[in-house]
Amino acid sequence: MTVTSTLFDRLAHDDAAVRRLAVIEAADLEDETWLPSLAHALRHDADADVRRTAAQRLGAWDTNEAVDALCFALADQDASTREAAGESLTALKDPAAGERLLRGLADTNADAFTRAALLRALRELRLPEAAEPALTALSDASPVVRREAVGVLGWLRHTHALERLTQLAHSDTSVDVRHAAVGALGFATDDSVLATLTHALSDKEWRVREEAAATLGKLRLAGARDALERALADDYWQVTLQAARALGRLRDAASTHAVSQLLVFPVSNVRKEAALALGEFGNADALAVLEAALHDGDPEVRKAVRIAIAQIGERQGSHRAGD
Question: What is the total count of domains within the chain?
Answer without folding.
Answer: 1
